[in-house]
Amino acid sequence: MGTIIEVESHKEVQIPAIKMRIDFGEIFGILRSRAQITTHYSPESLHQQPEIAVVNFPPRQITPLHSEVLVLGAPNEEGEIILMGPDKPLTT
């Protein structure tokens, strides 16, 4: 579980995406991710949100951005990704 601390639109790609820096605390630090989730999320809506992610995958080159973690989500009936995360703030 981490907190999204920086988020912006990823405009260098054909399919709209969002770039994120997620703070996982002392053990994993701040890691980067990219997700094609612009249908339901804007950068402003994700800032400071807690997010569940897989942190032990090797980094992947996705377009010009290296993605270091995989944020978790599930498709809705239309196949659009909905992120998984707590519905209340967490304390660490």
Architecture blueprint of SSEs:
Layout: E1 2-10, E2 17-23, H1 25-28, E3 30-35, H2 43-46, E4 50-51, E5 53-54, E6 60-62, E7 65-67, E8 70-71, E9 73-75, E10 81-83
Antiparallel strand pairs: 1-2, 1-4, 2-3, 5-8, 6-7, 9-10
Uncertain runs = none
Tell me the Rg in angstroms.
13 Å
**For this structure, what is the CATH class?**
Mainly Beta
The separation of the N and C termini measures 10 Å
Can you name the CATH architecture?
Beta Barrel
Note the beta-strand portion: 35-45%
What is the structural class? mainly beta
Number of helices: 2
CATH topology: OB fold (Dihydrolipoamide Acetyltransferase, E2P)
Report on the architecture of this protein.
With 92 residues, the chain is mainly β. It has one domain: Nucleic acid-binding proteins (OB fold (Dihydrolipoamide Acetyltransferase, E2P)), CATH 2.40.50.140. Helices cover 9% and strands 43% of the residues. The protein has helices at 25-28, 43-46, and strands spanning 2-10, 17-23, 30-35, 50-51, 53-54, 60-62, 65-67, 70-71, 73-75, 81-83. The strands form four sheets. The chain has a four-stranded antiparallel β-sheet with strand order 3-2-1-4. The termini are close together. The mean pLDDT is 88.
